[in-house]
Amino acid sequence: MHSGPMVEFGTTGAPSSGSQRSLRILHVFRAPLGGLFRHVQDLARAQIERGHAVGIFCDSRTGGARGDAMLASLEPLLALGLTRGPMRRNPHPSDLVALAALRRLTRKIKPDIIHAHGSKGGVYGRLPALFRRDRILRAYTPHGGSLNHRPGSAVHWIYMRIEALLGRVTDLFTFESGFIAGRYLAYVGQPRALSRVIWNGLHRHEFKPVISAPNASSLLYIGEFRAAKGIPTLIQALCLLRQRGEPVSITLVGSGPDEDELRGALARLGLASSATILPPQPAREAMRFGRVMVVPSRAESLPYVILEAAAAQVPLIATKVGGVPEIFGPFASELLPWDDPMALADAIANRLEMPVGELRERASALAAFVEQRFSVTKMADGVLAAYREAMALRSPARQQP
Question: Which residue, 16, 83, 72, is CA-closest to 46?
């Protein structure tokens, strides 16, 4: 195994691998939803465009109608096919069935690379190599997951020991942010394999401004309805603004385990009349529903919703968590402390009082920075270059059948 410093692809492009032989790549992950799924879709499509054969192995129970539709549009392009089966978030006896299905698929399609994404995908994609070494290169991209799950708890300690065990049979780590790379280093240790920080990216067409609708709310929230996303902090900030005589309207777009609690809190605190809750929908469409977007998260990795909003030149209020400072770069001083209702209320009042021209100027400057750093092309080329480097570094012992 090769151990070395983590290198960032993103500020400078990685070399394209289009002129080298085609690879057979199987992406393994659990849920076809959220930022992880967006990452896999973008990466898979880019790899296919570069002439590689790609397949997907994921859960059949999550994703809903939207996830099903996205997979259906991708399936005709997958030379190695789309395979779905029940995969639970937490350890479960059904994992044995899914692992057996993955083993059969691997024997059938004979991939060069299994690229595992997220904690559960990381287990599925790497666990077989603990029992039998083979020629398959195993890459792993954490997406927060177990690294962010209740640090300091006994459960987190167990998860990190599992990560350390699986790290022994990992040939390549591609971290989506410097933050997650740092978390792995702190909680698991120095990766034994080649490690790269390769930022998520956006397409060129996503850097077109989104203009808010004439009847847009003062504020917009897009994301999951759960405590980790800072929903309680947001509600407290809205209450503070109302107490100051500065009531604002808000549109919340999303779903999640705390939706009933959210609706109850809005009604109980007298905020329901100024709040609109809409179901999940494409982010760029949802961005029209508010003048200023607020992301009050308590924990994040490298959230696509912030990347997308920044690219669309939507005025943003966000917290200094996870990889968010990497997105804001020279504007990171504008980020707020998490779980601070007073700071959030002050920032909201400040943004809503700001002249439209100044808001647009600030949003445009952030978009220009994001466009320079976060590109799907750079992401895809960086990952393919990392595959090639990891394949070149493999020892003869690991290449025995």
Answer: 16
